[in-house]
Amino acid sequence: MQQRPRGRIRPPRRGLVTDQVDFDEVWEVLSQSLREIHQKNASTLSFEALYRNAYKLVLKKHGDGLYKKVKELVSEHLQYVADRDVKPLVPSAVITGSSNLFGSAAIEKRIGGSKFLEQLQAVWEDHQLCMSMITDVLMYMNRIYCADHKLPTTYATGMGLFREFILLNNVYNIGTALNRVILDQIQMERDGDVISHGPIRSCIYMLECLYESEEENEHERIYLTRFENDFLAASSEFYKAEGQRLLHECDAATYLQKVDKRLREERDRCVDTISSLSESKILAVVDQRLIKENIREVLEMDSGIKSMLDHDRFGDLRLLYKLISRVDPDKSVLKEMACNRLIELGKEINANLKNPVAAIEKEQQENGEPSTSGAAAVREEKSASNATALAIKWVNDVLMLKDRYDRIWEQSFGEDKSIQTAITRAVTQFVNDLKEAPEYISLFIDDNLRRGIKGRAENEVDEVLDKAITLFRYLTDKDLFERHYKIHLSRRLLANRSLSHDTEKQMIGKLKVEVGVAFTSKLEGMFKDMTLSEELSTAFRRDQEGLGPDSPSKLKFDLSMNVLTTTFWPTKAVGSDSKPCIYPPEIEAARTSFTSYYLTRFSGRKLIWKPNMGSADIKATFKGRKHEFNVPTFGMVILLAFNDLPPGQDTLSYTDLKEITAIPDEDLIRNLQSLAVSKTRLLTKMPMSKDVKPTDTFKINDQFSSKTFRFRVGLVAINKAENEREKKETNESVEKDRGYQIEAAIVRTMKQRKTLSHQELLIEVVEQLKNRFAPDISMVKKRIESLIEREYLERVDGRRETYKYLA
């Protein structure tokens, strides 16, 4: 209850108090004056005289009588006020409990309720003022008598009497009427009507000031005990119905906006109408009825979260996040449905990738392409080349999808860490659903490092690399990515197709940060080989310059060699077949000369030549115009074969070329396609078709022309997605390598721990290998059994599920 300022009690002047005091006589004067106060005629009274009279009664031990008489007088007055001022205005509709009135009845109800509140407000404010004046008169009694006897002060007693005779008047149901009128007014405002807040606020303040008992405990405020529960219950019913109405009438965005508006209204209502004591409680009601109970149904609407995410409706998503955060700190339903949509979109990207590949293969079968081994290889090349473009599109599509969700996360979801984790988990799921993902991510990096970053600023290049690393993090099978990346890197280096070695090293540095030096050691070894090869080629040239012009070892052309360390370079990139082709004499002399030089410098080493990985610059004249072009080594060997034709012969058949060069069928077909079928047709094929057959013949294209002096004759699909045969070979090789890595992890763990249970060993091994791949539990078990057979481990006697390391 609001405390009144404490007044000063001055001692009466000497001679003021006589020995004898007639209580009835003095009370008659006091009571008449108190009635005048109630009648609003206090201006004619002398408060000093009244104070002296009350002082005399208390001083002469009449405090008990005075206290009781004042209480009786206030009670009589309040009963009179209830009969005269309040009862006539108690709305009959409220007393009978009627509701849901419409038209003129509703208007009459609103007006009647407003008058009732205004009257009760006036009665309350008059009573407060009168009790304040009476308390001033009886200040000495409150200070001495009430304090000594531990009785409520006059003011507190007056508030208690107001509670009993007005508010809790069981005859007139004033308290019940007050509750219903206030709730009706609030209902009208919620329905869009305009109400007067002042009387409601005053009556609410009255309820806050009054208590259930004289102890005036905070939790016993009448507002809390008699009104708030009714208010919350009525609000709960209203918002339950409101929620169902909005679900049927609104789309998802409008629903969220209506809920947000209701929350603001209730918050404002607790400031200017209802008590602030109820703010958190009424907001909890709105949260429960409009958000918690209905949010899943809202999100599942056609206009719900799926539409919001697909159309980048950041504002709606921001409001959605704000509202869900009110009822669920974990945002479970938001994470679930947003990530489900993300996975759906990711699977659509995967499906769009697979369908065009299937269509390509079907088209090739329907066209009845040749079934020779070489032609079949070419068909695989063409299919793989198409798949390469689709692979790069897949990566770009995944990155675009991820970027879009990142923007939503930043702009709408408040950069919530738990949602970021959920998004990462969702992307990881659909990325790893595509078994070719490691290869495709490597192809994406390859495409950018060969041509995609050309002309870009340093920060743009760094952004591309960071995006690639982001996708790399999602991969479960990082060892499979490593295998493909080695192949693609080796081809870039050997074909001199990388735009920047600094960028290449920057990418390797990023990979090293992610998965450690063991992952990148062989990649760095490749660059070391390239540097050493450049130095070796320079030293070989100097050696050539020191030879006399008539020396048989003196070369007539420049020669650069790449000498590769076998353990660094993937066999698939450089080729496993060591059978050399038949070089033209001048080329064979150069090969012999370099071999002799190299073995002189590095005795004991062995050189295996890989013509499928080299290239040559050739000068030729077509139609009187000179050109210089770069071709693969096999292409050079094919072209030079036409230099040695006898007079009168200008053609060579496929069989002739195979016999002269000894180039394997697959490589011969690919190189002939590049020379005779592609845009740069240095050879003419007869008959002309896209496919190379054993019966085809070839000759130099005398009509060849080019606008440029220098050009490159590229080999068909140097870097491409793997065909089915290659995928099978890669998977078999990866599985074999994984077996070795699992065994190494088991041995490392057991060597350190000596004895471990089966389950503990599984956990340790999975933990060690998780940054490279997710080991299959059945494979781990097989490797454990293999190590037991080879006596690296043994089972502990009596505990077959426990293993012991054998030194």
Automatic annotation (TrEMBL):
GO biological process terms, alphabetically, are: ubiquitin-dependent protein catabolic process
Domain Cullin family profile: residue ranges: 436-676
SMART domains, per this entry?
CULLIN, Cullin_Nedd8
Query: Which is an annotated Pfam family here?
Result: Cullin
The record's InterPro entries line, in alphabetical order, gives:
Cullin, Cullin-like_AB, Cullin_CS, Cullin_homology, Cullin_homology_sf, Cullin_N, Cullin_neddylation_domain, Cullin_repeat-like_dom_sf
Entry GO CC: cullin-RING ubiquitin ligase complex
Domain of life, source organism: Eukaryota
Q: In the record, which residues are listed under signal peptide?
A: none
Gene3D superfamilies cross-referenced by the UniProt entry: Cullin Repeats (1.20.1310.10), Cullin, Chain C, Domain 2 (3.30.230.130), Winged helix-like DNA-binding domain superfamily/Winged helix DNA-binding domain (1.10.10.10)
GO molecular function ontology, one term from the record: ubiquitin protein ligase binding
Task: Give TM regions.
Answer: none
Keywords tagged on the record? Isopeptide bond, Ubl conjugation
Which family is it part of?
Answer: Belongs to the cullin family.
Supply the name of the protein.
Answer: Cullin
Species per Swiss-Prot/TrEMBL record: Sphaerosporella brunnea
